[in-house]
């Protein structure tokens, strides 16, 4: 295996560990998706600047891409410090607008790529089942601006009722943002992100718990 192929596999691994699609990584570091695909196949190699950007976007230490060893640098260990509250889907729509006592909530460790305002939700329903099983925890950062390919929590207010939903955020040329489910058998694959809907936050990570 060539050095380019080894680097490509490490980029693909780092992206997968960060729960990012090729498009999401491309958007995050401002390159094209085909460029990411070529790197991961070992056909081409990123510049030093682009590799640093991949490291920053995925949260993987830069040394990993050269040696394959992630290690535990001090800065990464510090970023893992802290906990986030596990809230309800009803509370998700108001989380950024109110001050709450997090001591009233179940707490869990905050993933290294999540900001201090991050909260966790337990997935309900099966609309995203191809990537997110019901019951897993998703970590939502309300301070991250969504880019095409991100999975997001959205609050829609219709007919006087507010309801949070969880979908993939996409931007197609010539149209506004749309939301897509990941369950290929779901009856409605797409929905418009209309003026009565707003993105609450971007899903940065997920965690499944062992079942007894």
Give the helix/strand layout.
Blueprint (H helix, E strand, L loop, with lengths): L2 H15 L4 H8 L3 H9 L6 H11 L3 H6 L6 H7 L2 E4 L2 H4 L13 E4 L9 E4 L14 E5 L9 E8 L2 E11 L5 E4 L9 E3 L4 E11 L5
Antiparallel strand pairs: 1-2, 3-4, 4-9, 5-6, 5-9, 6-7, 7-8
Helix pairs in contact: 1-3, 2-3
Describe this structure in words.
- The structure is a single chain.
- The chain is of the alpha+beta class.
- It contains seven helices and nine strands.
- The protein starts with a helix and ends in a 5-residue tail after the last strand.
- Mean pLDDT is 80; it is low at 71-80 and 97-102.
Essential attributes:
single chain; 212 residues; two-stranded antiparallel sheet; 7 helices; 28% helix; globular
Helix segment count? Answer: 7
Order of helices and strands: HHHHHHEHEEEEEEEE
Q: Helical percent range?
A: 25-40%
The coarse overall form would be globular
How would a crystallographer describe the biggest sheet?
Answer: 7 strands, antiparallel
Question: What fraction strand?
Answer: 25-35%
Q: Give the termini distance in whole angstroms.
A: 42 Å
Largest sheet, order of strands side by side? 3-4-9-5-6-7-8
Structural class designation: alpha+beta
Tally of extended strands? 9
**Low-confidence runs:** 71-80, 97-102
Compute the gyration radius: what is it? 18 Å
Average pLDDT figure: 80
A few lines on this structure:
This protein has 212 residues and is of the alpha+beta class.
